[in-house]
Amino acid sequence: MEKRELSEKELREKKFSLAKGTKYLLDIMFYSGILVTVSLPFSLKYIGKYLEAVEENYLPAVIIFAILGVLALLMINELRKMFRTVLNENCFVPENVASLRRMGDLSFFIAAMSAVRCVVYLTIAMLVIILVFIIAGMFSKVLAMVFEEAVRYKEENDLTI
Description:
Elements: H1 8-38, H2 40-47, H3 52-56, H4 58-87, H5 94-120, H6 124-160
Helix pairs in contact: 1-4, 2-4, 4-5, 5-6
């Protein structure tokens, strides 16, 4: 079968629907994350029946996971803000640079809090999470620098028109 080229309008609509779907997914993650974070004392009490480490370290686990939950919610909220600019077709703005920088900071804080959690009880998965969030933090910081340059080029270009 011959592959048909998408028109510019069809391609634009496809990209827009993907961005809109991602925005809805981020909204679901944000609001369900609030529910999960608020329910931590109850859910960890229940999980403690099956995992001895959680039962023995209940209060530190609630505190650490609550902090991690809030940090994750803050990061998802930054992504939600950025996707609003994508949907408005104006993503190279200083606000997104600031969001990327904050997301980098939040990633490093999540890695640090995960390291604190390893002091309470260590798992291989938590070591992987620490590494992932260190990489995510570095990626966000570098992407913020790239966006900053793109914003500068866009502003220069807007002035010349």
